[in-house]
Amino acid sequence: MTYARAERTALSDLLARLGPDSPTLCEGWTTFDLAAHLVLRERRLDAAPGIALPPLAGYTARVQESLKARHGFANLVELVRSGPGGVYGLVPGMDAAVNTMELFVHHEDVRRAQRVWEPRELPGGLEETFWKRVRAGRGLFLRKAPVGVALHRIGGGVALGGPKDAPRVEVTGPAGELLLFCFGRQAHARVEVSGDDDAVARLMDASLGV
């Protein structure tokens, strides 16, 4: 089983257990909204660009609501579980390449929005995968960082991002937690953050991620 498949299964199980009205870390979204987002992302490529492009966001939001109305929560969860859908299921290796991070982050969006949670101990291979993705994508993930950022992976490895001529903030943690930090979940990532107080505050409030 690939890491993407394992995350997909675990996330689907959690969504089914919590039901449609539980909170997530995605602002304004319940678990129902998140399930619809995941189905839209894989199966409605006409609407997917609006996830990242604000001028197209209105159409994407309408399609997401239509998916909720058409399928209902339980069927959306089963569509997530049965994936990868669309092009992600047609191209060999694309699910693992594209969806491993996406499914992990959204799995944690659900887990960490609940009243009680603890970080998971991730398999060593998944940690390695996430560290490679963080290093390769730091320019994109940290492009909106207002300060310099030094990501220190517990177990070895440093990746630098953000403006070079600004104060630097040190962020230390496991690769999975650094990934969540870089994806805009700063307040919910279990990392150690150090540096000038003002620089730290600015980084914690920044809109990071893709």
From TrEMBL:
GO molecular function, one term: metal ion binding
Domain of life of the native organism: Bacteria
Residues of the Mycothiol-dependent maleylpyruvate isomerase metal-binding domain: 5-50
Protein name (database record): Uncharacterized protein (TIGR03085 family)
A Pfam family it matches: MDMPI_N
Native source species: Planomonospora venezuelensis
